[in-house]
Amino acid sequence: MREIEEECEQDNDEEDEGQGYDHEEERDESEEAREQQDDDLEEDEMDPQVAEELDSFAHSFKDVANRFRLVSKIGEGTFSSVYKAEDMEYDVFDNSWDLDRSPEGKRRLAALDTYPPIAKRQKMSMAPRRKKYVAIKRIYVTSSPQRILNELVLLHTLSKCDSIAPLITAFRSQDQVVAILPYYKHADYRAFYRQLPLREFKYYMKSLVTALEHVHLKGILHRDVKPTNFLYHPEMRRGVLVDFGLAERESLDPSYCTCRDYGENDHIRQFTDRQPIGGYLKNDTRPGRRANRAGTRGFRAPEVLLKCLNQTTKIDMWSAGVILLSFMSKRFPFFNSADDIDAMIEIASIFGKPKISACARLHGSIFDTNIPTVPDRGFKLEEIVEWALRGVDEDDESQAKRGSLDEEPDRSLAFDLLKKFLEVDFRKRISAKEALRHQFLEEI
Amino acid sequence: MSVSPVVSRQPLSQCSGNIIRSPSEAGLVVNRVRSQNATLKELNLTGQSSSTSSSTAVTDISKDRLYLSMGPHITPSSFASRLVSSAIHCQTAHTSAMVASKARQHMNDEESNLATTILNDTVPDATERSALSSTVHTSNRGANHFRHPSTTATANAGIIEPSQTRTFSSTSSTSVAISASGNAPMVAQQGLSVLSQVTERAREIPRDARDRAASLRERERMIVRARDSHQDKDRALTQVATNQNDASEQRDADNIRNWQRQWKRVLATSVFYFDGLEDVGKDRTKKQLLNYGAKIETFFHGGVTNVVTNRQIQANYAATDIIYQAKQRNMKIWTHEKFVRFMSHLQENPNASASNVAGTHTSTTLSRGHVVASDTSNNLCRMLREEKLTGPADSDPRARRDDIHYFKGPYIYIRDATQIYRPIMVREYSRVSEPQLGDWPQFRVTGTGKCPFVLDLQYHQNRTVKEVKPRRTGSKLKRAAAIEAEINTSKGAAKSRKLPEGEGDSHNQSANFLQEHEAPQADDDEGITEDLQQQASAAFKEPHLRKRSALTPVRMTSARANSGGPTAADIKARKQALSATGRSYHKRMSAAVGHELVATGINMSNVTSNIRSVTQSGGAANGLAAQASQVQSKEVNSLKKKVFERKRRPLPVPQVAVKKEAVAVKEVRPGYCENCKDKYDDYEEHVGSRKHRKFASNDENFAEIDDLLAQLVQPKRELHELS
C-alpha cells in the first residue's frame, strides 16, 4: 500500500513557481487496510471507475499488461497511483528480492534481527500455486523526468536493505514510467498501535530505524517518514520503508543557514533585531524564506518548519520520534498540525518557550509568542504521555494500566529514546546508527 | 545593520597615532592620517592605497569634535553595508548643521576636498568605545532620517575610492559622504541634498574604475585571509589563485565559510592570553571568543595557545618577555589589530555576497565589478527595507505606526533574525477570556486514538459525570492539575454549545470550509486584508460574538464528527454556490460571513501563513472513520471513496441539512504539470493536450531515465533454476 498524504511543497529555488500548486492527498487508511486483507474479495467488489482506470492503464501500457494482471488500486498520492498486480511471469525472472520465496531471500530473512516471526508464515511458503503479487507504482506523467529519475535512482541505490522496498524493475512508455515493487502484506498502523505491547513495538521501531540507518548511510533523506510509509506486519515483525518520492540526497554543500556556523555556546548570541515587535508590517515586501518542506504535516521536524536550508537526515529521526510518541500515548495522529504554524504551536506547547526559542535562534529566527498555553517551561515527555493516557476509554483503561506495569523497565528506556528522537536541536538529536545502539532497541 | 557604529571622541591627533600600522604586515597598506590638528580642509587622504582592512571615515571639524567612524575590516562584500552603518555623532545640533552646510558648499563647488580619510578603526580604548557606542546608538535614532540616503553616497563613494586612491596615490582626497545627525530636522534636510549630489557624482564614475576597485579589494581580502590563517595557508593561497582565475563568488563564499568553520573549531580548544590588553575588559572580541568556546587566561602560563599583544612584533625580545616565551613555546602570537580583524572576518556572513550573486546571477561570466555594483544596490535596497522595518527614525520609536499591525490577541510571531526575509510565521488569535477557549492548537485530554490537539468533545461529554482525579505524585503534577481544570472549563463550554442546526449554521460552516479551501488561493496574500481585520475588530467589540467565534472550531469539529464528515461533493457543491457570489476570495469571504460575524478568529488565523493547503482531520479521526477530504485536490478520488464508504459502513445521517447535488460528477483531477509548466484543471485533458504529447513523445526528454532503466532490467532466471 502506498499512499501519500503529504503536503508537498518544494520551495526550492530551482522549482518553478507553478510548483506551488496545492498538492495534497489524503486517503482513508483503514479502508485500504481492510481492502488489502482480503484480496479474493476485492476483485468482485471493484468500483467501476477504478476498473475503468485499470483497464485504460493496461491498455496504454502493453509492456506492463503483457506481464502483469492488474488486480486493484491500493494507493493514490500526489505523484503516483499504486496498483496491486499479479506477476504472471514470476517464474521466468530472477526474484532474489523476494525474501519469502527465493533461496537468497530466505537466507537474508534468516539473518534479520527481527526474525523469527511470531506467527508461522504458513500461507506464504506452503502454497506454491499461490498468486505472486507485486505493487506497480504508476508515476503521474505530469511529474518531471528529473523527479522520476530521482526516485528511481534512490530506490535503486537503496535496494540492498531488507527494511526498504527494493525496486524490482521499471518500465517506460513515452511519458509514462512505472516502477515494479514487491507487494507487502501489512497491517494498518491504526489497527494495531493501541493493542500492541511495547515489547512488540520494539520490533517496529527497530525495523524502522534499521531502514533509516541504511537510507542515511547512503546520504539520503527520506523526508516522509510516517506510519503510512512504513508497511509493518506485526505477526512477522517485519516492516519495509516505502515511498521515496520525496526523498533527496543530503547535500554535500547545503545552502547556508545560521545553524551551520553555530557554536556550542552561541545560545548566548543575541541578534540585533530592529524589526517591529508586538506587531508586524502589513505590507512586507521582503521575500519569504524558502526551503524544501516536503513531508507530511505532523511529522515535520522543527528545523523544517523554520525553513532551515541545511536539513539533514535528522529530520527523519524526528518523524520516527513522532511515531514512537504516538505509540506511547496511544494517540494518532499525535500532532494535528493543520499547517506549519499550528505545528509550531503544538510543538511549543510541549517543549516550552525556551527550547523553541533556542531552536529558532539556531536557525536564524526569533521566536516570539504570548499564547498562554505555550509554557515557559517545557513538559517532560513522560508527563505528556501520562497526561494523554488519562483520557483512555473505560474499556482500555485497565488494560493499559496492566500493560504499563509489566513494561516499566522498557518504558523508561523507551522514554529515554523518545527524548533523544524528539530533540528540537537537530545537532543533539540521535542518529539512526546511535539509536540502534540504544538500549531500548539493542536488547532485542 | 549588523555593525554598530563606533565613534571615537578622541581628537584626531590621538587617533592618527594609533592607526599607523606596519605597512608590510599582511601585505596591507594602511591609511594613515597625518594631519595632527586636522581641520575640515586640511584633512587629506595620505594613505598609499586603499586597504580592505579598514575604512574609517573620520571627519573632524576643527574644534567641534565630530567623527565619523566605522567598523573595521571592510571586505568588498560587506564594504557598502558597513559604510552604511557609519554614523555621525554630533555633540550639538549646531555642529551638524555646520557640517552639512559646509559639505554642501564644497560639493557645489565640485570640490571633494572635504575632509575624509580612511582610518583604521581599532579604537585604542575599547572601554570608551563601548560606552560611546551606546550613546551613538541613541543619537543615531535621530540621524536615521537621512542615514539611508547617505548610504547611497557612501556606498558609491566607497567603490570609487580604492581605484582613485591608487591612481592619485597620496595626492588628494576622495569624495565624501557625510551624514549628520542631531535634533535639527533642517540639518537633515541639508544633508540629504548634499548626499544626493554625492550619489550622482559617484554614479558617474566609470565602470572600469569600479571593476578595478572591486577586484583590488577582492584580492586584498584574500591576502588578508591568507595571512590570517596560518593553518590553511596553502588553501588560502589557492583561494587567492582561484580568485584571480575569476572563480565564482559562490565558491568564495564557501571557502570563507570553510575557513570560518575550521577556525571556529580551532578556537573551541584554544586558550588565549591578552598581553598588555588586560584593561580591555569589555572588548567585544573577548566575548566572541568565549562564545566560540575559547578560554581566556588572566595570567600567562604554559597552557596558553594564543597570545594577543598590543605591542608591535619585533625580531628580538628579552628572555623574560612574554612574547619571547610564547615564541619559544610555539604559541600563536597576534597583534591586537590583526586579531580584531580576524575576529570580524570570522563573524562575517559569507552569504551576504553569495546571496547577492544568486540574486543577480544570470551568467557565470559576471564580472566582479557587477557583483559589487549589485552589492551596493542590494545593500541600498536592504537599507530601504530596513527603514521600512524600523520606520523613519526621526519619529518616536514608541509611536504607533500605521504600517504595522499590532497584535491585540495572542499571537505567534517568528521573524527572520537577519531581517532579510519577511516573518517566517505570524498568526494572531482572537482574545479570549480563558486560555482554553482560544482557537490555537492546545494539548487536551482526548479519547484513545484521538489527536490531543483536536478538541475531543465526545470524550468530554462522555465524561461529564466522572471527574478525573489528578494523581498528585508531587509538585510536577501541579501543572497537570491546572490543565485538568482547564479541561473542565472547556467541558462546560462544550456543554453550553449548541450543535449547529438550520440555515444560519450551514452558512457558518460554509464559511469555515471556504476558509480552508480557499487558503491555498490566498497563498501569496500574506497580510491581513482589511475586511478580515474589520470583522475581527468588530468581533472584539461584540462580547457575545467573541465567545461564539472562539467556539467556532469546536462547532466545526463536532459537526463533522456527527455527520461523519462532509463528502467531497458536498464541499464542492457549497463552493460552487458560494463562488457565484463573487470571484475573488475576499468577496467570497465577506459573502459567506456576511450574515453573522462569526469565525473571525479563524479568519485571523488564516492570515499570514504560508498555507498551501489546510486540512483539519477533525473529530472524525477516531482511527476508524474516514477522514473526510477537505482540500480541493482531494475531490479526486471522491467517487471511488464513496463507493467504499457505502460498502463498509452505513452512511452517516448528517445533522446539518446540506443540499446534496447528486450529480454524477466526472472525476477531474486538477494539478500542475512540471513538464509543461502549466496548471491544469483536468489531468486527463491536460495529458492528452498537444503540448504535453509533444513532450511525451520526445525520447530525448527521457534519455537519463532510459539509461537507468537499462540497468534495471530484471534478469531472467537461469535454466537450471527453472527446472
TrEMBL record, chain A:
UniProt keywords, alphabetically: ATP-binding, Kinase, Nucleotide-binding, Serine/threonine-protein kinase, Transferase
Domain Protein kinase: 68-441
Coiled coil start-end: none
Pfam families per the UniProt record, alphabetical: Pkinase
GO molecular function: ATP binding; protein serine/threonine kinase activity
Residue ranges of the region described as Disordered: 1-48
SUPFAM superfamilies hit by this protein: Protein kinase-like (PK-like)
Enzyme Commission number(s): 2.7.11.1
GO biological process annotation, one example: mitotic DNA damage checkpoint signaling
Gene Ontology CC: one annotated term: nucleus
Name of the protein in question: non-specific serine/threonine protein kinase
UniProt organism field: Lipomyces tetrasporus
Organism taxonomic ancestry: Eukaryota, Fungi, Dikarya, Ascomycota, Saccharomycotina
UniProtKB/TrEMBL annotation, chain B:
MF-aspect GO terms: nucleic acid binding; protein serine/threonine kinase activator activity; zinc ion binding
Domain DBF4-type intervals: 666-715
Ranges annotated as biased composition (Basic and acidic residues): 227-236
Any single Gene Ontology cellular-component annotation: Dbf4-dependent protein kinase complex
Gene3D superfamilies in UniProt: BRCT domain, DBF zinc finger
Record region (Disordered): 129-150, 227-252, 488-509
Keyword set includes tRNA-binding: no
Residue spans of biased composition, Polar residues class: 130-142
Domain of life of the organism encoding this protein: Eukaryota
GO BP annotations, alphabetical order: positive regulation of nuclear cell cycle DNA replication; regulation of cell cycle phase transition
Keywords: Metal-binding, Zinc, Zinc-finger
UniProt keyword Hydrolase present: no
PANTHER family the UniProt entry points to: ACTIVATOR OF S-PHASE KINASE-RELATED (PTHR15375), PROTEIN CHIFFON (PTHR15375:SF26)
Protein name: Dfp1/Him1, central region-domain-containing protein
Species assigned in the record: Lipomyces tetrasporus
